[in-house]
Amino acid sequence: LGYFVIVLIASIATIIIILQFQRNKNKYKEISDYHLPSVSCLKDFKLLVSEAGKLTYDWIYASNADEKKRLHEIQDKDYPVIKDKFNGFSISVTKNNDEFTNLINAFDSIVLGQQQIMKALAYDSSYSNDANVDIAEKVYKRRLKDQFSIINSRIDSLADRENTLLKENDESMRSSFNYLTWVMVILVIVILT
Hints:
By secondary structure, the chain is mainly α. 90% of the residues lie in helices and 0% in strands.
């Protein structure tokens, strides 16, 4: 009978350990595949939004060929890469799907406004036409200036939520490892006695 009890306890402990390891594996996968990359991507996106805001302002008020080229690069190269990453996150199972989609839509709207400014002031000679400058200023002041601030605060809010989820998952895994340690200690004590 004593041997049967030890085998039963060892079997139950083994099942508990396997289930906990599977749970931890899933949490680790969620952290490594989703939360860490999304936090990193949000940081990159915040830098991109800030740079795009400065370059948009400078396009109107302090025209510079290098900065114009950089704004084109952001729209043509950098933003599409981040947008693809966000689309990948919104496909994943997450609590923040809609927020990623909303960020993409908000920046798409900013890009449309930037393109209006870039079209109105496409050439150095465009700056001598007051109507072109007025169009660009109106687009910036009425649409883009506030949108840059709003999207930055939304990025901060989403990054805070992602960091909170990351911390909760980390604490859950630590708790699980502590639980597994106690199960193993109890199992060893039962086997040795």
